[in-house]
Amino acid sequence: MARKKANYPLLEGLEITTLAAEGKAMGRWQDVVVFVPMTVPGDVVDVQIRTKRRRYMEGYVVRYVRRSPLRVEPFCEHFGVCGGCKWQNLPYEEQLRQKQSQVRGQLVRIRKIKLPDIAPCLGSARTQFYRNKLEFTFADRRWLMREEVAAGGDITAGPAVGFHIPNMFDKVLDIRKCWLQADPSNAIRLEAKRFCLEHGYTFHNARTHTGLMRNLIVRTASTGEVMVIVVFGADDRARIDALLEHLSASFPQITSLFYVINEKLNDSVGDLDPVCWRGKDHNVEQMEGLHFKGGPKSFYQTNSAQAYELYKVARDFAALGPDDVLYDLYTGTGTIANFCASRCRRVVGVEYVPEAIADARVNSELNGIRNTVFYAGDMKRVLDDAFVAANGRPGVIILDPPRAGVDEEVIRVILRAAPARIVYVSCNPATQARDLALWTGAHRGGRVRLAVCTPHTPAAESWVNPGRRRPAGGWRGGAAAGLPAGAGRVRAAPTAGIPACAARFPVKRLRWRVKRPARGAVSAAAGRFIGKGIFLETP
């Protein structure tokens, strides 16, 4: 029996009042929140609802009644469909202001974390062609635009090379010009598509799992080097060699040319071995006189120029001294580790991807850095008390985790290690705020800084470096059990007498639990942190 089609309403004259998460904007209709993508505050629109829930609705614009004076004209012809640059319709200065407001909302309004004023958002000098990596998808049928379908006539859904439609794994928008990555990125993609169509190459179908051509990855470096990785769905040697030979001859700028055979049902290639078909097996980025090697699987900040500004802020917040041992967790190719190595005694880096760690070691050798050591493995399995004992207690920890944040097991090890300072770099203020709320305490002073690595998107990098913690007995308090002399008194230790499930409770519940351990049951880590990666130096 067919599902009955919902009869969703058309809302006329809806005023958009504010921006929301994920690049959406919102207004209110009869006290119900309505989310509308691709709009800006001040727009008045007619909205066709496509999702209706008890507390909210979501729809798309069918007519602009009045356009907001805040709005600017998007420069990309694919705006509104591919979903890659959701804020092109906002002035860049307004984007920076909104991102700062989002971070403060997550940290202060939602999680009730007491923080100092956030410094002005550090914008990117380049707002177009700033990315150093893009991944394109081959599809045997392109996404048809709503205007094409409405116009009727003979519509051909030919092959596509481009980006996935948001929330649709099998729908790909054919990209003519992308403004995210500089030349020769667009030319390489278009020529690869032309050659494949001309010579009868089949494109991937995500539902039937057929087709030779799957993905095209282009990586460009600040040094001008270009890496291209072509992902094939089968080991068709003749066609693989023909395409790679053509790309190599057509684009002499390509310094590294790889291919990957992916016969799996998903697009992930992290567990597959790239084959260097021609050229070097890496790209080189340059920063402050240092050189950083990166392979086809290596992670590097997608905005190379802004990455330099990001790492300078992290180094400043770390306040490294010549006797400090620095732990750089989630180190990637060791960029931050090697960037900070000259200012401390020793650096210990940990990263999940073995190939990235191999590059990190090479980067140290390449730059003549001899005070670094790197480990590969799952963070929660590598970082334990035995690891800290073997590598020395960290004076400073820099965390740059993925969007999901840091595992609870890792947090507990960090607390027991009791470093003097922690710098937490986050690309997701929601998980950062969640982690901050896992510990209790109060503090004064400190710093918060934001930087934009991806203009025209809601994403922002944030650093939090709170100042000194206020002990329960006040700023003049005396010694506390397990803490250095003069450290002040604390009422509870985050690691003393708290069940493992406590971290899953809301902030108020967690605080209620941690105020009740017996007096004196205080570990060396107590009172130093109110949140993951948040510096709370004891007085």
What does this structure look like?
The longest helix has 19 residues, at 92-110. The chain has 3 domains: 1-71, Nucleic acid-binding proteins (OB fold (Dihydrolipoamide Acetyltransferase, E2P)); 133-287, Beta Barrel (OB fold (Dihydrolipoamide Acetyltransferase, E2P)); 300-450 and 461-514, Rossmann fold (3-Layer(aba) Sandwich). Helix 1 packs parallel to helix 11. It contains 12 helices and 21 strands. Strand 9 and strand 10 form a beta hairpin. Residues 440-445 and 466-539 have low confidence and may be disordered. Strands 8-7-6-9-10-11-12 form a 7-stranded mixed β-sheet. The chain has a 7-stranded mixed β-sheet with strand order 17-16-15-18-19-21-20, with helices on both faces. It has 539 residues and is of the alpha/beta class. It is globular and about 70 Å long. The N and C termini lie far apart (70 Å). The protein has helices at residues 92-110, 146-151, 185-198, 237-250, 304-318, 335-340, 354-366, 379-382, 385-391, 408-417, 429-436, 507-514, and strands spanning 10-19, 24-29, 32-37, 44-52, 56-66, 133-139, 160-164, 172-174, 213-220, 226-232, 254-261, 275-279, 283-287, 290-294, 325-329, 346-351, 372-376, 396-399, 421-426, 446-451, 461-466.
